[in-house]
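Much of our argument rests on the idea that a fold can be written as discrete symbols. Part of our work consisted of pairing the sequence of a single chain with a tokenised description of its backbone. We regard such an encoding as a compact summary of how the chain folds. The amino acid sequence and the backbone structure tokens for this protein are reproduced below.
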Amino acid sequence: MRTVIIGFAALVMVAVGLGVAGYAVLGFNSGAAASTKYLTSQATQQTVAQTAAASGSLVAATTYDLAFGVTATAIDNLATSADAASTSTRHQLPRPRPPGR
């Protein structure tokens, strides 16, 4: 009796699975013909241009010293835009050792 119940439950699950798969593939159609409308337009070729104007100097808020094999280190960049090139302090990092040494 137990195998009959398990077999019936398996049959019901297969039937439900087939129904869901059929609905997913075929979709639900109420019998009315669905009309599809496409909104089309002639393709054109144009130049796209955008400009921006600004004045002044730019200075990065934080500059990083990058090297392979070590963690990036921030370079102190607290200078103003007028003297940014001359007053930044750079942190010296030890050179990384080659692998296997």
User: Anything to note?
Assistant: The beta strands are 63-65, 73-75. The chain has two helices and two strands.
